[in-house]
Amino acid sequence: MTARIERVVTEGVVDIDGAEHKVENNTWIVGDDDEVIVIDPAREADKIMEKVGEREVLAVICTHGLPDHIGAAIEVASRDEAVIALHPKDKPLWRETWSETWPDIEMEDDGVFGVADIQLDVMETPGISPGGVSLYSEALGAVFTGKTLQADGPGKIGGEYPALPDQLTAIGGRLFTLPGDTRVLPAHGDEVTIGDLEPHFDDWVSGSLTRTTSADEEEGPLADGTRIAGIKLDPDDD
Prior knowledge:
By secondary structure, the chain is of the alpha/beta class. It is built from seven helices and 14 strands.
């Protein structure tokens, strides 16, 4: 049976430094008619499981430990006793939501998950969180980027970039090495391709993301404290 990708969109509110933000989250389901992997089960487990149906959930993979990525993780995993995977650097974030549990699998760079005769390759893409990952499927021509990379560029938290040099290093050194027609399937918003976004990378590196906006713009100035000079285009560079 041919593997396919399905999306479930849920809505909710997240609290960032005391301010509430309305968000829509993408939960991605990868598999065939028999088995699936669920990526970033944000909330509304019943809605996610309705899309899953009778198929077996093999694993729940969280690209980040942020609350709006993992809110339904345990409930989605429980029916079929599926394993939950998270990068170990995001375990402190996980415990802020699930104080009495731990994920079953600690993901590492270049790890592999299999479902429906295809594989998902783990790529470390930190920046939004220390343990952020993306999941690449060559067979499906798609990469699940969490909050690292979205249709409008690098993802943010509450309008700011927690660690922009790390994030841009991951985007330039890992994600933009993928084929240009690779579908970018983020945790928020619509999909795009690597080829659509890659031409903007030089502008991001030059500081376009953190230039002060005018006072009448909705988000106001960003104050993330990052320094573009810290970016490494090759993650293996010292």
